[in-house]
Amino acid sequence: MVTVNIHDAKTRLSQLVEQAARGESFIIAKAGKPMVRVTALDGQARPRRIGFLDGQIEVPDDFNDMGSAAIADLLLGPE
After folding, report:
1. Which of 4, 13, 34, 45 has the fewest CB atoms within 10 Å around its CB?
2. What's the whole-number mean pLDDT along residues 39-66?
3. d(CA 38, CA 43)
4. What's the pTM?
5. Which CATH number belongs to the domain containing residue 16 in this structure?
6. If you average pLDDT over residues 28-51, what whole number do you get?
7. DSSP string covering 17-57, please?
8. Residue 20: phi, psi to the nearest 5?
9. Rounded to whole angstroms, what are the CA distances from 67 to 38, 62, 79?
């Protein structure tokens, strides 16, 4: 695995990213001390799935009012 100085990595970033995308990982070092390893992602980033729990959970009809009496007792004291 190749080690690249941080200054060289800045000037050759595009080339190094292409290299990592091909599977050739490299290390970026600062003052000769290894700091990070750059590797390709395993695959494409997964898109967010909206509604993936649809039908698996139920929200009660009184969800917005749940616990309101207990909260009022805590804030205002018992009636």
Report:
1. 45
2. 81
3. 15
4. 0.52
5. 3.40.1620.10
6. 83
7. HHHHHTT--EEEEETTEEEEEE---SSPPPPP-TTTTTTT-
8. -65, -40
9. 50, 10, 15
